[in-house]
Each structure stands twice: as C-alpha cells, then as structure tokens.
Amino acid sequence: MKKYLLALVAVISMASTTFAQNNNHVSLGVGLLYENSADLTLSYEHETKYHNAWEYFANGCIKWKECESCGHICPESFWRNYRTWGLGVAYKPCVTRTRNSHGNLRIGASAGSDTDDFLGGIHIGYEQNYSLKGGWKLYWQVKSDCLIKGQDLFRTGIVIGVKLPCGK
C-alpha cells in the first residue's frame, strides 16, 4: 500500500509541474475606462517563444450615467444604459523581460455589437505580467480602444486580472 501511495504522489507532483509549465492561459480581467465605463474581458492566450503571445478574447463593456430622476447612479442607470460586446484577436509582442515579469504591447481587432448596431474595434495597449507559483500570473493593462460605429469612438483605461494555466 505504501508503494502505491508513493507512486501516486510522484505521478501527481510530476503532472502538476508539467501542467504549470505550459504556455496556455485562460484569463479574466476587469477594469474602468474613460468615460464612465466598466470593462470585463475573458480570454485564451497562447504564449510563443520569448513571451510573445496570441490572445483570443470576448469583451463586454457597460457605460453608466447619472439617473435623470434621482441625480446619481442607480441600478437602472447603470445596467440599462449603453452596452457593447465583442469577439477578437490580439498579438502581443514582448518588449520587456525581468526575472519574474514581462511586458507586452497589445495590438488587436474585434467585431461585435452594441444595443443597436454592428461594431468594429481596434485595440492598442500595454500589458505587464507577474509570474506566480503554479503557472498563475497577475497582470495589469493600459488599453485604448477605437470603436467604429459606436457611441464611444475612443475608450481608454486600466484593467487588472489573473491568468490561470490550462491544458496544451
């Protein structure tokens, strides 16, 4: 029984080490953008050589305003105002490397919709990643979005998030 238990522990430790060293991540980021917008991004990232990466993402954004009847932000004026969503891809070349972190430019495009029409988007920004144990990463982004045919022509802001390792 001890041999089986020892073999099981050895297999689990080798598998978790292998799993932690792959280059694929699922990430979730939340942020605030100018002017009065909240942003949520769910993405799959495939890291290539030297921390360059391809990111495939789904993005949602809510723009809030002050309620005309009560004069402040209420649930109705937050959730029922202008909303957008998009699906896209971004290439992220690495521009800085240190021992436990690296920085990438983020250049991408997306297509989606708001509450009425089709939207196209061009995304440019910078992302700084910090490596943790087990393949996890924390990151922050400074992002700028140019939306074609949207209420917001330009959006810019800061996003923070976490990246979890996933299978190859």
From TrEMBL:
Keyword line: Signal
Keyword Signal attributed: yes
Signal peptide residue numbers: 1-20
Domain of life: Bacteria
Name of the protein described by the UniProt record: Outer membrane protein beta-barrel domain-containing protein
Species whose genome carries this gene: Bacteroides cellulosilyticus CL02T12C19
